[in-house]
């Protein structure tokens, strides 16, 4: 399906081809009149662009004067054609962007009891897809022009701006919305958005994402109705799979189920890893709680695979790590959700 600005692009292509053909033909004509290629090309360029530096070589031959006059007419026409189509292209793009933004604002203003998604990363995209499938109207708020453009291409209502700013939330219709989901990978930003949204709409339901478990209390104090910790969700899923007889295949094998599960973890911005506690490990003879505290919540211990056999699911913070043990951990992935 052609884009709305395909016609200006085509006109610009035709104009460039016309001007290029004119300049090439007339350069060959001057060359046939005995000029050097350097003089011929220079003459064509300054004439077509109406620079008016004067003749490179005095033109006294009537035929050559007629040739030059034709170059003035056709060359200037080609350059004007290029300039006009370029201006048309840029102007139409600006007008369409302005009209598109106004239309988007008008559509958002008509919404009531809708959902607001703050953040269009991995999790934001998953939420938007599910809400669209469920027929729930929603608005996506993100500060990245690239992400907003991607969401608009999907046909979703968007608002470009930092969701921590109250005017941005107001423009997204927070005072009329039924629910707000703030799923940024920054806990501080999620707390601030939650606090602002709660002050602007005491009745709105707020679902907030947290990366570090200690943030849950802060989000609830700020006014969140529910707090979701993606790392804990993934950890619970891993623990469930480890309880099955073929649990170790999940960590080392490439079965269909393990590949699907890894894909879901990636969508949540999480990674799963097995870490062996060797004799040189800095975590040897240390407690699980101390290890988790040391990494400041970036890693969550799901299970301990003991050297002598057996698995400690959801180990106690006081559990000691011994040589040959292996930790099954959940950690943040490389990308941002």
If strands are numbered along the chain, what order do they take across the biggest sheet? 3-2-1-4-5-6
Succession of helices and strands? HHHEHEHEHEHEHEHHHEHEEE
- Mean of the pLDDT scores? 80
Any idea what the CATH superfamily of the largest domain is called?
Answer: NAD(P)-binding Rossmann-like Domain
CATH uppermost class of the largest domain? Alpha Beta
Give the number of helices. 12
Helix percentage = 40-55%
CATH topology of the largest domain: Rossmann fold
The termini sit apart by 32 Å
Number of strands: 10
> Given the helix and strand composition, which structural class is it?
alpha/beta
Radius of gyration from CA coordinates: 32 Å
- Stretches where pLDDT is under 50 for at least 5 consecutive residues are 1-5, 244-256
| Main sheet makeup | 6 strands, parallel
Secondary-structure arrangement, i.e. CATH architecture of the largest domain = 3-Layer(aba) Sandwich
How would you describe the shape?
Answer: elongated
Query: What proportion strand?
Result: 5-15%
């Amino acid at each position: 399906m052609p884009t709305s600005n395909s016609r200006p692009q085509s006109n610009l292509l035709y104009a460039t081809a016309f001007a290029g053909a004119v300049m090439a033909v007339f350069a060959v004509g001057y060359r046939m009149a005995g000029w050097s290629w350097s003089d011929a090309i220079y003459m064509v360029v300054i004439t077509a662009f109406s620079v008016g530096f004067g003749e490179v070589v005095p033109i006294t031959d009537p035929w050559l004067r007629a040739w030059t006059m034709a170059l003035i007419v056709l060359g200037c026409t080609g350059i004007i054609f290029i300039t006009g189509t370029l201006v048309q292209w840029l102007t139409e793009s600006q007008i369409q962007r302005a009209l598109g933004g106004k239309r988007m604002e008008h559509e958002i203003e008509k919404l009531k009891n809708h959902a607001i998604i703050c953040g269009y990363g991995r999790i934001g995209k998953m939420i938007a897809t599910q809400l669209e499938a469920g027929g729930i109207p929603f608005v996506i708020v993100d500060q990245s022009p690239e992400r907003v453009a991607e969401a608009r291409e999907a046909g979703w209502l968007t608002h470009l701006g930092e969701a921590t700013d109250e005017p941005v939330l107001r423009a997204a219709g927070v005072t009329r919305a039924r629910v707000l989901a703030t799923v940024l990978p920054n806990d501080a930003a999620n707390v601030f958005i939650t606090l602002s949204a709660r002050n602007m709409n005491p009745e709105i339901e707020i679902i907030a994402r947290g990366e570090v478990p200690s943030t849950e209390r802060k989000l609830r104090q700020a006014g969140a109705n529910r707090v979701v910790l993606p790392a804990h969700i993934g950890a619970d899923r891993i623990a469930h799979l480890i309880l099955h007889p073929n649990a170790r295949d999940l960590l080392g094998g490439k079965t269909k189920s393990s590949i699907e599960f890894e894909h879901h973890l990636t969508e949540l911005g999480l990674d799963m890893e097995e870490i062996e506690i060797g004799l040189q490990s800095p975590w040897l003879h240390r407690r699980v709680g101390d290890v988790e505290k040391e990494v400041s919540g970036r890693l969550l211990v799901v299970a301990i695979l003991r050297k002598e056999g057996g698995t400690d699911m959801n180990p106690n913070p006081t559990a000691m790590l011994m040589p040959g043990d292996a930790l099954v951990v959940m950690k943040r992935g490389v990308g941002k959700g």
